[in-house]
Specification:
Elements lengths: L1 H9 L2 E2 L13 H4 L16 E2 L8 E13 L2 E13 L13 H35 L3 H21 L10 H27 L2 H8 L2 H11 L7 H20 L5 H24 L7 H23 L2 H15 L2 H26 L2 H23 L5 H23 L4
Antiparallel strand pairs: 1-2, 3-4
Length: about 400
């Protein structure tokens, strides 16, 4: 028996038929082996594999069970551990999220949301202050994109953020997204220059309705009945708010509607053109801002022009004073920051969670703007806003549960 075991060991394969027979101690060749406290057994059917030439430590990778058998005894299960050398030659197949990690992830997402909403509220307040004193939405929109582009260029140059690796194909697929983003941004700014911030955001809460209608009639997509039914409170609430708005303005209303339509196309182009790209959310929005700035600048000059801007700037300084410069800087900075954080949030969460967060963001903007600007609101108007926002929330729920996202 001893000779058989020694012979088997020399062949780097050792087979046991029973644990009842103790291992012999008189053979020095066998004593040279250093056993781990845990048995290192690879396969019960193929025997025990030892590589006596390897000096690398072994790591336990998995635990299974097998059984030694004797013809005269009942099979007894024995635990077996698979191991591999600690040279990272085989990756660990472990994907365990500890409770502390889950809590940290929830805190991280919560901080993203809180920062996103806070920055958006601050932007809307300063944006409305600037537009009340300086009613030139095309220049205001241009300054927002220019400020964000400059901030990201400085971040890349100083290595605060890693610059993205892009090619011509990247910018080619980004171009239609930038066109839609530019139109949506300018249209929303035009809307807020004509009507209350709360009214603009009530109308913009109807974006899901535009998304479904565009997807159906232009792209040929079909949706289950519950999705269409969820659009009824959105459309009805927006219509009720528009009819009962005390300071209704057609330009402001149409600006919000055009913004909805443009952002729907932006999302569609993003999904089709950016699939498979490895640019982070922060850098993706930075590239989007730069390309949008190039598209918007000539149109802003053509529509408004430097002469109108110079005259309007002097009037604003005369009315507001030096604080006006701070207002312009704040609205430009916070516009980029809130959009950047929203794209960073989208990297961390599901589309459903992002949609819910966007709905809650509109609630915070509407409520805060009504309080700060003392916007007169009729009860029927407030009811319409509540119905529209509730419809948006229901839409996101139905859309997710039907797995059509």
């Amino acid at each position: 028996m001893n000779n058989a075991m020694i012979s088997s060991l020399n062949q780097s394969k050792l087979s046991f038929t029973s644990f009842s027979n103790p291992l012999p101690r008189k053979h020095s060749s066998f004593n040279a082996l250093k056993f781990s406290p845990l048995p290192i057994i690879q396969n019960s059917q193929k025997g025990l594999n030892f590589d006596t030439s390897s000096q690398k430590p072994l790591h336990i990778s998995s635990i299974g069970s097998f059984s030694f058998s004797r013809k005269t005894q009942q099979e007894k299960p024995v635990t077996v551990c698979n191991a591999y050398e600690a040279d990272r030659s085989r990756p660990l197949d472990i994907n365990v999220e500890l409770p502390d990690e889950q809590a940290a992830q929830k805190i991280k997402i919560g901080m993203y949301f809180a920062t996103w909403w806070a920055l958006n509220v601050v932007f809307n307040i300063y944006n409305k202050k600037v537009l009340n004193a300086f009613p030139y939405p095309w220049l205001t929109s241009t300054l927002s994109l220019a400020c964000g582009s400059l901030m990201m260029l400085i971040s890349w140059a100083t290595r605060i953020a890693d610059a993205p690796k892009t090619d011509f194909e990247f910018w080619k697929t980004l171009f239609p997204v930038a066109v839609a983003h530019t139109i949506g941004h300018v249209a929303a700014t035009v809307s807020m220059s004509k009507v209350a911030v709360s009214f603009t955001h009530i109308i913009k809460s109807g974006e899901p309705a535009f998304s479904v209608l565009v997807s159906k009639f232009l792209l040929g997509d079909t949706f289950p009945l519950p999705v269409y039914l969820s659009l009824l409170p959105i459309i009805g609430g927006c219509a009720l708010s528009a009819v009962t708005e005390l300071n209704f303005n057609m330009t402001g209303f149409m600006g919000a509607m055009i913004s909805n339509l443009a952002f729907v196309f932006r999302n569609i182009f993003s999904k089709k053109g950016m699939s498979g790209k490895s640019v982070s959310g922060m850098n993706y929005y930075a590239c989007l801002s730069m390309l949008s700035l190039l598209i918007l600048t000539p149109f802003a000059i053509a529509v408004e022009g430097p002469q109108m801007w110079a005259a309007g700037w002097q009037n604003a300084l005369a009315q507001i004073g030096p604080n006006f410069v701070w207002w312009v800087a704040a609205q430009s900075i916070f516009y980029h920051l809130y959009n950047q954080v929203s794209y960073m949030s989208l990297d961390q969460i599901s589309p459903l969670t992002f949609s819910i967060g966007n709905t809650m963001k509109r609630i915070s903007v509407i409520v805060s703007s009504i309080i700060i600007f003392h916007t007169p609101v009729q009860p029927v108007n407030a009811l319409g806003a509540a119905i529209a926002i509730l419809g948006t929330f229901l839409y996101s729920q139905v859309y997710s549960h039907l797995h059509v996202i």
